[in-house]
Amino acid sequence: MFIIQTIILGLCLGFVYALMATGLTLIFGVMRIVNLAHPIFILVGAFAAYYLFVIFGMDPIFAIPLCAATTAILGAITYKLVFEKDAGSQTYSEMTVLLTFGTAMVLDGTLSYLFKNTQRITSPPYATDAIFIGDIFLPTAQLYSGLISIALIVGLGLFLKFSKLGIAIRATSLSRVNAELVGIDVKFVCIFSFVLGCALAGAAGSLVSFVFSFFPAKHWEWIAILMSLVVLGGMGSILGVVISAAILSVMASLVGAFIAPAWSTMVFFVALFVMLLVKPHGMFGKYLE
Amino acid sequence: MSECMLKLENIVAGYGYGPDIIKNINLELNKGDIKCIIGPNGAGKSTVLKAIAGIIIPRNGTVSFNSEKGNLELSGMETYEIMKTGLCFIPQDRSLFNTLTVAENLAMAGYTINDKQDLRGRIDEALDTFPRLKERLTQYAGTMSGGEQQQLIFARAIILKPRVILIDEPSLGLAPAIVEQAFQHIENIASKGVSILLVEQNARRGLSSSNFGTVMDLGEIVFEKPANQVLSDDRIQELYLGKRKKK
């Protein structure tokens, strides 16, 4: 029973990680931006959810659209200020590593200045509740956040698969020149994908706010895990991210439960290490030119 | 005199900060004509097409296009805007989205068409012309054979109902039988009044499907003649066999 419980909780956590990483992989896939600032956007979403809860008593789950809108606006401003000018440059991906690192530092500093580096967690009623099914004990916070995450990812998947704009996003990620040749406004698709990625970060932030305790410098810890998920899944592949997040989180939970919690994070990095040796382009990735 | 669809005047273009690849190109394309640009490697043939399509921006000169909405000046416009005006460009590497399905590729070809009913009709029409694609709708474009990919490319082109199609090296990397098919498609499309500007390495094959031949060398147009007279011109021998006049 304990194993089943660990696996279910691992899966829930995996879906949350997957949602945190989908924006990252989407932004890389379409625009070749290695967005090291992605986790700080998640934190901005988490802080938005926290203060909406503390000040207005708003449930973090219902606050998802507001948190997503907050990070989407912040994302649009960041894109205009930092990324738009050099898009199309030959070394754009390399440049964005530095640009996004800088952006992360600035936002990190701003958040620390505004909110101080103390641990916070949003505590809606279900955050401390749990469901019992026979002997299986499931904390509702993890359960809800996992289910909502997977619902949002499926929604994103359907949008990318069936909508005209979604297909255009996939087409652009395959080839910018060919996308232009069928009349797709590539610049617009890029801004839209970036803002969409940031909105996903905000949505994830809202869920994270009642699952993990957080503080402004927390994002350095997350970027390592999220980047390893993105690389494992294959840079740019959303399906890859979901699968790698699900598998690794379950493994991490098992390691945490049966060996020691301190060792659980290591699962992500061992997996990354092995993957880079065996299949450097990831599970569903393409070789980059 | 038939209607002039595309007119290049004094076009100069090159890549990045590099030297001018094409110099003072003057070219006219009339309605329903197939014009084939030939010339040795590095003559700047593909660059002419890229300059028209806006993939590189001409440094000088004008490109005027007789669109449905009247005469348009194309130089300076973004590629995606040019593609909305009724001009279509088929580049060398075939420009398909390999990991999108055939249906998605066709839908993307009609990206600029907002009327869903209209788009549906155009896609059906294209599928009637290339029935083979009907069986392949859910397959990834990159997994089809070279000939089928070729059909998909022409199907995508006719969905847009363009007035002018620019084609870069249709024979590149294809088996001889499929090259024949490609030129058949090109002739069929032109017979419906679409003008085609073609760049072809295989001069003999390209010219035999064309009305006019334009010969380029070192970024300039050397001469232009009805297609059946091009190969008998003395200057062709010099270009292809490397004999140049002493300076």
Folded structure, characterized:
The complex is a heterodimer of chains A (289) and B (247). By secondary structure, chain A is an all-alpha fold. Chain A has one domain (15-217). Helix content of chain A is 71%, strand content 3%. Chain A contains eleven helices and two strands. A two-stranded antiparallel sheet of chain A has the order 1-2. In chain A, α3 (64-83) crosses α8 (186-208) and α9 packs parallel to α11 (266-278). The model of chain A has no long low-confidence stretch (mean pLDDT 91). Chain B is an alpha/beta fold and 247 residues long. Chain B folds into two domains: 1-86 and 163-247, 3-Layer(aba) Sandwich (Rossmann fold); 96-161, no CATH class. Chain B has nine helices and ten strands. In chain B, strands 6-7-8-3-9-10 form a six-stranded mixed sheet, with helices on both faces. In chain B, strands 2-1-4-5 form a four-stranded antiparallel sheet, covered by helices on one side. Chain B is globular and about 50 Å long. The model of chain B has no long low-confidence stretch (mean pLDDT 88). The A-B interface holds A 164, 167-168, 170-171, 174-175, 177-186 and B 53, 55, 78-80, 83-84, 89, 91, 95-100, 104, 107-109, 111-112, 156.
CATH level-4 homologous superfamily of the largest domain in chain B? P-loop containing nucleotide triphosphate hydrolases
* Mean of all residue-level pLDDT scores of chain B: 88
Structure classification of chain B: alpha/beta
Which CATH class of the largest domain in chain B is shown? Alpha Beta
Give me the strand/helix succession of chain A.
HHHHEEHHHHHHH
Number of strands of chain B: 10
Largest sheet of chain A: 2 strands, antiparallel
Task: Compute the number of structural domains of chain B.
Answer: 2
Number of domains of chain A: 1
Overall mean confidence score, pLDDT of chain A: 91
- CATH architecture classification of the largest domain in chain B: 3-Layer(aba) Sandwich
Radius of gyration of chain A: 19 Å
